[in-house]
Amino acid sequence: MVNAHTSLPSLSPDLLPVHALIEAEQKEFIGAEDGVQRAGYFCAYTPPELLAAAGVRHARLFKAGSPEIVANGERFTQSVFCDFSKSCIGGFDKNEGDPLYQAVDKVFNFHTCASMKRASEVIGQFVPTTLLNLPRLRDQAASREFFREEIIHFRDDIAELAGRAISDDEISAQIVLFNKARRLIQRFSELRKRANPPLSGKDFLELARGYYYLPPEKLLATYQPLYEKLSAVKDDGKRPIRLMISGSEMADGDRRLVELIEDEIGARIVVEDHCTGLRPFTHTLREDGDPFAALADGYLDQAPCARMKPLDDSVHFSGGLAKEYDVEGIVFVYLKFCACYGVTKLEFLNYFQSLGIPALEISSDYSHSDHGQLKTRAEAFVEILNDRRADAVVAAD
Amino acid sequence: MTEVLDRLAKPRASRKRTPTAENSKGLKAIAALAQNYSYAQIQAEAAAGKSVIWGGFSWESPLIYACDTIPVCIDQLWLDKSRESEAIAEDHFQIPGEFCSMIKTVIGRLHTDQGNNIKRILHFGSGCEPIHAVFELSKRDGYDVQTIETVSSFTNEEKRPAAIKILVSELQRIAVWLSGKPVDENRVAEEIRRKNSLLRKVHKLFELRGKHPLYISGLQTLLIFMGSMHGYGDLEAFGKAVDSLIAELEALEVKPLDSAYIPLVVAGGVGNRRLLEAIEESNGAIVSWVIGGDLLYDENLPPLESLAHYVLDAQGRGDLGEMVGASVAYRRLRVEDEVRRTGARGIISSSIIGCPYASLMQQLERDYFKAHSVPLLALETDVHKEPPTEEQIMRVKAFIEMLA
């Protein structure tokens, strides 16, 4: 297992060029003297289409996993925030933060959970920050109209940052482009429906990670040939234990659980129901008509996180994804102090149980001190799934 | 609750209060109203066919009253049986131990009392995340939960027309949910005037209390704050009790605070109410309290817009806390104003253990006042009724001793 912060991650060789491209893009973001403004955002409900249309460099700020960065954030939050929120703050620390975060000229935060709303108030001390509203009541026409208005305000704010107006045509063109990227990433994921997928869970997370750092043109140019190559790989008939990870955000830099499951135990993550995995790529946007309505509807209609209402939508989506990818077990992971997934975990676990899919519940943080415990629990879980598989074979005979 | 009110009715002999305070008609009337707002009484009202809901007691209460509905503060859910409720939350709902006692007692009590008559819950989408989550869980127990869409604006610039528009639309929807018919805006306007009238009285009362900080205890002050939001279901009666108390304070001779007492500003609600007693027993005099809810509604606006402006303004001032998802950055300005205005020598800031939002606000206030050389004691409590821990009491006493 390799620390993603210090060295190459344990990706398949095919994915290493993608990794290198992302790293190069981040270096450009940090160091290129191009006179272009840098914008950062936290949440997958933020439409990067507008940032791209404005011509600003942009990145999703979801690098986390380092206890040191958490400690920076904890100077403000005390211990009762989730480690991700603390990392978002800690990344902006002037002395010990993350260079990517420090390169940002402006942060846009469509606030999802209350912790991230508060985090942005602290971050506003370090860098100009705009807080934008994200409705919860996805089915209400009034909420959609409100979100559309917020997105128009977002456009105006970006235009001010970029120093130029953004036309509707430019936005529509970016919607088309980002849709292509989303569709392609979803097609990569569908390769994982095979008995022996040609890409690992870690590989897919890297592809998803690229979406938040790479301009879509660059992404498409790199990902398309890779897709052709991977889709041509013959299925060798092996069938590793198939798992889904569901729950809280899995940050860029927090790969330890996936690496543990895939590299040390030998099971395979074939799908993720979290906002840094497959979830944001299961839906595309309308490409005609009013681009702001398309963005508002498109982002509200994407697979919901547990912050959205009703909760049943999130729970049923998660279960549906597990069935679609024919998983044998689900690892439900929530970050300590994450209200969205910590308080509601039983709803998810009960639903998985009703579908007959065993689930392992893990409460996680970025402390790195629980590797042994996690390994023991994950190994036991996979062992049970192996036994179930063997029992099923015997029963079929 | 009963226990608390019993103690309110019998002030401790050790407190240096005037005989008038011990026989205060105003304080007794307020205590009686609070008593009648008890869990059992409210359930009885609901059983008798009155429209009663959990929530709706804060900024939105004029709308709720205009829909002939009694809003009930969710603190009723933890005033009794809080330990049992918390255990149910952790065992039955598997809520992790790190979450605050408030949300655990809420879901636990809603679960055990699912057969009771209050089955509707109203809350604001900008409120804290865990309360959202537990209200979602309560749907399994048959509760009808309505959420007012999430809207946050911490500055005037952020208070955009779309934010007001969605809130107005949401309040119209809630009126239909409550009463089955479109909102009667004239009634809402009337309720706003009634609440403003009450708030003006409460303002006056607290101005007077600043001159006589020992007359009304911390616990009694907390009851007045709560009443200023919902009037304990009877705004008129509460207003009369406040009038009576104002008259009592106006009749008192203004004297400088005895030098044995240390003037303090309290920031935030105090979950464990006995901590208030610890402050007073240590000769702390609460000369001001920043807990929010003292804004006036704008009567010149259309009534639903007035409610919308009120809640967004409250957010920006750090008022009303997590009920409205208030800013964590701005309350300190009001605390600072109160320290200046009253000449307080220290600040006691309180939050509930496990509340990330309050803890962040405390941390920002701690840093700010440290930089400005104003002593601040940050307390963390829970909602249970057990006496505060010896450590908490010692911290309060040591803080006040240090200031002395």
From TrEMBL, chain A:
Superkingdom, natural source: Bacteria
One Pfam family in the UniProt entry: HGD-D
Assigned protein family: Belongs to the FldB/FldC dehydratase alpha/beta subunit family.
The protein, known as: 2-hydroxyglutaryl-CoA dehydratase
Organism: Rhodoblastus sphagnicola
UniProtKB/TrEMBL annotation, chain B:
Protein name: 2-hydroxyglutaryl-CoA dehydratase
Family, as annotated: Belongs to the FldB/FldC dehydratase alpha/beta subunit family.
Lineage: Bacteria, Pseudomonadati, Pseudomonadota, Alphaproteobacteria, Hyphomicrobiales
Region called Disordered, residue ranges: 1-22
Cited Gene3D superfamilies: 1.20.1270.370, 3.40.50.11890, 3.40.50.11900
Highest taxon above the source species: Bacteria
InterPro entries listed in its UniProt record: FldB/FldC_alpha/beta
Pfam families per record: HGD-D
Protein source organism: Rhodoblastus sphagnicola
